[in-house]
Design goal:
By secondary structure, the protein is α+β, with helices and mostly antiparallel strands. The chain is 28% helix and 28% strand. It contains two helices and four strands; from the N terminus they run E-E-H-E-E-H. A hairpin with a 2-residue loop joins strand 1 and strand 2. The longest helix has 15 residues. The relative contact order is 0.28. The model has no long low-confidence stretch (mean pLDDT 93).
Length: 79
């Protein structure tokens, strides 16, 4: 979470990455990336990244950076 907005998480072995709607299409063809689908419909702006896509520290740091860049562009959430 960054400023109350979800940035990254995990579901089982997969990283949940909130990349934003503008980057969604760019992320999909990348190795180890697949649509995030909880209820039969892909969630635009979110992808799953399977373990091979984040096993190297630099790859994981890059993924987190992409998510942080998007999420910090959003207004903070108040709870």
């Amino acid at each position: 979470m960054l400023d109350g907005n979800m940035a990254v998480g995990d579901v089982g072995d997969a990283l949940v990455a909130r990349v934003g709607p503008a980057r969604h299409a760019d992320e999909r063809p990348l190795p180890s990336v697949r649509p995030m689908d909880f209820v039969g419909k892909p969630m635009k702006g979110y992808v799953y990244v399977d373990p091979p896509g984040v096993e190297v520290d630099a790859a994981l740091e890059n993924r987190i950076g992409v998510c942080a860049d998007f999420v910090t562009s959003l207004p903070p959430q108040q709870f």
